[in-house]
Amino acid sequence: MTGTASDRPAAPADAGPPESLTELLGGRRGAADATGPPVAFAVGWLAAGLWGGVGAAVLTATGLAGWRLRRGDRPRAVLVGLLAVCVAALVALRTGRASDFFLVQLVSNAASALAWTVSIALRWPLLGLVVGAALGQRSRWRRDRALLRAYSRASWMWVATYLLRLAVFVPLWLAGQVVGLVLARVALTWPLVAAALASSWLVIRRSLPPGHPGLRHPVTPDPVAPVEKRRNAKN
């Protein structure tokens, strides 16, 4: 992302999700990171066993990390993705089960579903935090009751994506279906994220009242108004 929130032109209320939201919630680059190493792992595993799969996955993840760094991606995000693949490889080598390469993702999806659910219950929906950070609003969006309600409802779309992945991945993992896990991961990465983006935006649009200025312009209460009302009441 380039520029600050003040540099960007204000979007109309009916505009789609900002491009930065797509990137933060798992855009096409994130899809390459999520699918490239598992596909390489399956190919290497079929060709040369567990060590072949681990080597292929780590080499692919390293290549993707170098490509992302050259494109100017944040080093921290790149290193986190590479570290996740390395940990997954170590788990598989430790247990000796190729399907355990996907165990880290199972745990990650379960933790994500829990985190998003807790954030909704605490009235700090993660979708609002992500969009607010992307638009430079910090926590100002929370003072807009309509926007807070919309983000809370839309966040359930993301909880559903993690639960759907778990419903598909867990039986395949228990059965040791490595190829099935790879195919499921490819099918449930970018296509599912795209569906979650579209559905969550639809929920937000339907949750906001008519005339609301949109995500870029939270309607916050005027702190001066209550004081003036008390003064008028005294007079």
Describe the overall structure.
There is one protein chain. About 70% of the residues lie in helices and about 0% in strands. With about 240 residues, the protein is mainly α. The protein has one domain. The longest helix is centred in the first third of the chain and has 43 residues, at about 30-70. The protein is elongated, with a radius of gyration of 22 Å. The chain starts with 18 loop residues before the first helix and ends with a helix. Residues about 1-20 have low confidence and may be disordered.
Helix and strand topology:
Layout: H1 19-24, H2 28-70, H3 75-95, H4 103-121, H5 126-134, H6 145-174, H7 178-187, H8 190-207, H9 224-234
Helix pairs in contact: 2-3, 2-7, 4-6, 6-7, 6-8
Q: What is the domain tally?
A: 1
Written as H for each helix and E for each strand, in order along the chain, the element string is HHHHHHHHH
Query: How large is the share of residues in beta strands?
Result: under 5%
Shape: elongated
Protein name: DUF3159 domain-containing protein
InterPro entries: UCP010219 (IPR016566)
Pfam families: DUF3159
Organism: Micromonospora siamensis
Report a brief summary of the structure.
The chain contains nine helices and no strands.
Descriptive keywords:
235 residues, mainly alpha
